[in-house]
Amino acid sequence: MKIVIIEDEILTAEDLRDDLTALNAGIEIIATLPTVNHAIEYFSSNSNYDLIFSDIQLGDGHAFDIFKKISVNAPIIFCSAYHEFTMEAFKNKGIDYIMKPFDRPTLAKALEKYHFLKEKLIPRQSDFRQLPDSSLPKVKKIQSLFVYQGDKILPLPVKNIVLFQLKNQVVRLYTLEGSDFPVFQSMEELESKLGPEFYRINRQFIVNRKVIKDVSRYFGRKLLLNLMFAFPEQLMISKEKTPHFLEWLAEN
Question: Domain 150-251 carries which CATH code?
Fold first, then answer.
């Protein structure tokens, strides 16, 4: 199996190479690409690879910048120290998302998932090259969340939720009617289950598109969200997430 590694930290790339080849003697690391530009150049003239392991934050941009310009011929296992890129990773041919620092058991599970998808979902194909993105497993989007109101447990339609906030290790949701309730799911779980009308703008907030009035430029090339209702805290988007956020905002 031929694997390409996209990683700008030399020691991490070497550790990943050593761990992968130790897990499977049949693995060949055919390229290690340290930057967005190196990756674009490589994939522009090479197509003989089976799997990609990719860091997300590189020295000259995000790995997603690569896949916006180049259509790769293999699935991708993304590696990151942050949860915030999960949704975008799975929109870019990602089949797994592993957290740094990773270990061999984690890598082994990721490889096992790759082989399962390859053998079970497309048994008549020799690789993923003809597998459309829509054929990859998708997380079912939720339509309601259960909330506690006194001694009752009530289903709350997701369409009535304007935003989620993580504060003091507790996730709360806010509704169109001005109510708020604790949510017994993590922001990562919610991010993976909510529909495309929701966007995780940073570690603390997931916002519904329909309550965004407009956005303003802010110091440090950040964006400030202006909502259609009063909220006591500022909702900021980092300069790194700005391009993807604006793309999402324009599509929904």
Answer: 2.40.50.1020
